[in-house]
TrEMBL record:
It is a multi-pass membrane protein. This is Type II/IV secretion system protein TadC, associated with Flp pilus assembly. Its main location: membrane. Residues 182-305 form the Type II secretion system protein GspF domain. Pfam families: T2SSF. GO terms for cellular component: plasma membrane. Keywords: Cell membrane, Membrane, Transmembrane, Transmembrane helix. It comes from Brachybacterium nesterenkovii. The chain crosses the membrane at residues 6-26, 116-136, 142-163, 288-308. It is found in: Cell membrane. The keyword Transmembrane applies. The keyword Transmembrane helix applies.
Amino acid sequence: MTLEHPLLIGAALGLVLGLGLAMLLLDNPWTRRPDLAARVDPYLRRGQTSRLLGVPAPEDGARSRARALARVLAGPLADRTVGLLERLTGGHAQLERRLRLAGRRAGVEAFRVEQVVWGIGGGAVGLLSALGAVALRGASPLVGLAMVVLGVLGGVLARDWVLTQMIARRAARMAREFPTVADLLALAVAAGEGPVAAMERVARTSSGALPAEFAATVAEIRAGATVDQALISLGDRTPLDALGRFGEGMAVAIERGTPLADVLRAQAQDAREASRRDLMEIAGRREILMMMPVVFLVLPLVIVFAAFPGLAVLEISL
């Protein structure tokens, strides 16, 4: 089957026609039921502004009308696409928290745009695969359509998986940096500096994900937040649970007057113990993986070399 096959051309034209008719019937502004905001908006009193400020320039009139028409036609489709993405990868609040844990400064809208771009890329890969399967293997056009849909979904879910991996890598990097940073804070506090000055010194003299978070905490305190609130929000911005306990411990120590240097040293020791336990767990899992080549590769060879002389002797005696 070639690309000029009438069945393939008819399926492609039917797909495009069906999508166009569905968009015309479902998302046109005349048959679409307006939402609550659109029904209430004409009855709200708005501040009066000068009409001179609202008149577009003569050369931009056609462009502004085209943008308004595109917004009216494509707005509902974009809303439904965002709603589908939220059902697949979580709501707005959950995604915002995950972006904060990954250390991304971009908002949810920027991430949704990236998901759409990845979905388009996956759809393009699926389309090429579908064309190859239909043209070269003679597959059904329905199979090609399913490959395109799976490509789009795969691209969207792949972007979400990459975000999850970013969170995991950031948590691992912070776990490695946490004992050293806690010791530096303990040394600075023991030398006579306050907690805010100690965090600022660590953020200025160190590099990494954790010192950057301490710099953000110091900036939040300088902006007017209390030390307790900034330390508690430090745990909310990071994917490391130990760092959340660290911020709460520092806040309690500052509030109750507990020696802060001893608290920081204890936190650093707990972080090292947690890192040692994680290494032991990883070693236990890797030990099981290391047994697989021994059992499936080395042991069969040993059995063959041990049994081959006996089989050879039996064949000679027979």
